[in-house]
Each structure stands twice: as structure tokens, then as C-alpha cells.
Write a structure and sequence with these properties.
single chain, alpha/beta, 3 domains, ten-stranded mixed sheet, 21% strand
């Protein structure tokens, strides 16, 4: 790390002094970590800067976020920052392998948005929305009304799918892989855009239908001028992988006071959060998987 290099450069000719400085540095870090974990010390002990709502986000991942702050997570973050009486600040990092280690765990931010509920890497906030994977298609092409991937109308069709996602498993179980067009899952979105590529292939007739996570499918459909429609897939059999998920925000483990404050802000601003999600075409479900907004 740069700070270790700086210590070595400054005290490399005095070994005992270098060792003393490094020991003191480690003790200070340990003390800070203990303070962050200690109960009852309040928000100021847990956050690097208690006056800033510090969010780590991808710089090029619409509809979620981008550096121009045009994504729905950017908008939701602004609402929460105002509720909390904090300034809003973003630290940008592509959401690829190691994202948490390089951001939240490195104290470069205090919250990460868009986490699937139950993720053990972080302490989960309360859910702020629930959505489902969705079929995205051109209207009046034979796919209207399809509610699950077992529908016989999908047989023999060219289906776009993001590799490694739950719908891929269901397509395999139903013998629908022969004509699947697969798009990469984990890519640096500054250089690749698999969901956008799928949607463009759909619009140009290179595939017949696509399956995307609802917030992404709804976003593209809502901005297609009626060229695309979506259908949330909420009626898969009980034996299939889950297709519906609750979404939370993640904070560091042990930061209970901060998590409680964040939960209070989410509850206070839930109606505004929902309006933002709807404006981006995100299909929304209640906690019983009943559709409350169709999206798109």
C-alpha cells in the first residue's frame, strides 16, 4: 500500500525507528477498527466522515448509476442524503470481482446500494424494493401473456440470456438451450454493455426474446417508445431457482448504529424511493410476490 511505502522511504535508514512507527500505525488502525465495532458509540464512531453520505457505485452502469448521476440509485442516494442531513458523495469503482474489498471494506464509502438481501459480505439494511426477472420482447410477436419460462411458445425461439443468472438454469431444465444467445455476466461496464447489446439484438431481430433482471428490462422497455414490452416472471415452479429478489443496501459488519439510521431514512422516504423506481420502469413486487407495478 502507498502509506507503507511512504513509511519505508522516510525511515528506511533507521530500522528501530521504522519499526516503532509501523507498530504505532498498526495500533492506531486497530484502535479505529475497535471503535467502529464498539456498541453504543454512535454514528460518528462508525463513519469516516459523518457529514457525508458516502456511496460507492459503478461509474457506467445505467439504469443503476453513472458518473453523471443519471441512474436510479444516484437519485435514491440523493433523497436519502437529504433525509439524513448529509452531503452526497460518490466513490466510483467498476462492479467487478473485488468490488467490496476495494470500496466498502477499504473505508472508501459507507454504503453500497443494490445488494441482494441475504448477502453475507455486508450487513443488510431493510429492503427498499423487490423485483423479478422479466421477459423482454417486441409486442405482437407471439410472446404477449407469457408468465413463465415453461411456456411452450418459447420452444425453438432464439432467446437472449445473461450467462450464469437463474433464468439460464430454468431454460436448461426446460430444454431451451439449443437456440440460446448468451451474453457475459461479469464485465467492466465502461467497455462492455451486455444488457444493452441484448436489447439491440432484440430490436434488430437477431433474437426473438430476452430474459433480463427486471430493473434492467423495465428501464430499456420504458425508453423504447413502445417497441419493447416486458412481463415479470413470477410463476416459475417451486423447484426452480428463485426469480424474485429483495434489494437492500450494504454497510460494514458491526456498524449497527449506522444501519439503524439508514433503515429509518429508507422507511421515511419509501414513497419517494418507489416513485423513482417507477420512473425508471422497474417492476415492483410486494413481500408476497404480488405485482404492484408492472414496469416497462
Amino acid at each position: 500500500m502507498p502509506r507503507h511505502s511512504a513509511i519505508t522511504a522516510a525511515f528506511g535508514s533507521v530500522p528501530w525507528l521504522r519499526g516503532a512507527i509501523i507498530t504505532m500505525f498498526v495500533v492506531l488502525l486497530a484502535g479505529r477498527a475497535a471503535m467502529a465495532q464498539a456498541p453504543g458509540l454512535g454514528i460518528g464512531a462508525e463513519l469516516v466522515d459523518p457529514h457525508v453520505f458516502r456511496v460507492c457505485a459503478d461509474p457506467s452502469d445505467l439504469p443503476y448509476s453513472n458518473q453523471a448521476q443519471q441512474g436510479f440509485e444516484n437519485k435514491i442516494a440523493a433523497v436519502l442524503a437529504q433525509d439524513l442531513g448529509k452531503r452526497l458523495g460518490f466513490t466510483w469503482q467498476p462492479q467487478v470481482f473485488g468490488f467490496m474489498r476495494l470500496t466498502l471494506d477499504a473505508y472508501r464509502c459507507d454504503v453500497v446500494m443494490g445488494i441482494t438481501q441475504g448477502n453475507g459480505e455486508v450487513e443488510n439494511s431493510n429492503a427498499y424494493y423487490r423485483s423479478a426477472y422479466a421477459l423482454i420482447y417486441r409486442p405482437h410477436t407471439g410472446f404477449d401473456g407469457i408468465q413463465n419460462l415453461e411456456d411452450p411458445r418459447l420452444k425453438g425461439k432464439r432467446i437472449g440470456i445473461i450467462a450464469g443468472t437463474p433464468p439460464a438454469t430454468i431454460l436448461a431444465e426446460n430444454g431451451l438451450l439449443d437456440h440460446v444467445h448468451s451474453y457475459q455476466l461479469s464485465v467492466n461496464l465502461r467497455f462492455f454493455a451486455p444488457a444493452r447489446e441484448m436489447v439491440e439484438d432484440l430490436e434488430h431481430g437477431n433474437i426473438d426474446v430476452g430474459v433480463l433482471w427486471g430493473p434492467i428490462a423495465g428501464y430499456f422497455a420504458s425508453r423504447s417508445n413502445g417497441k419493447l414490452k416486458i412481463m415479470p416472471l413470477m410463476h416459475e415452479s417451486d423447484n426452480d431457482p428463485p426469480m424474485t429478489f429483495s434489494i437492500v443496501m450494504g454497510v460494514r459488519h458491526g456498524e449497527d448504529a449506522w444501519r439503524r439510521q439508514l433503515n429509518a431514512a429508507i422507511a421515511q422516504e419509501q414513497s419517494q424511493i418507489t416513485k423513482i423506481l417507477e420512473s425508471y420502469g422497474v417492476p415492483l413486487l410486494d413481500d408476497r410476490n404480488r405485482l404492484i407495478y408492472a414496469g416497462g
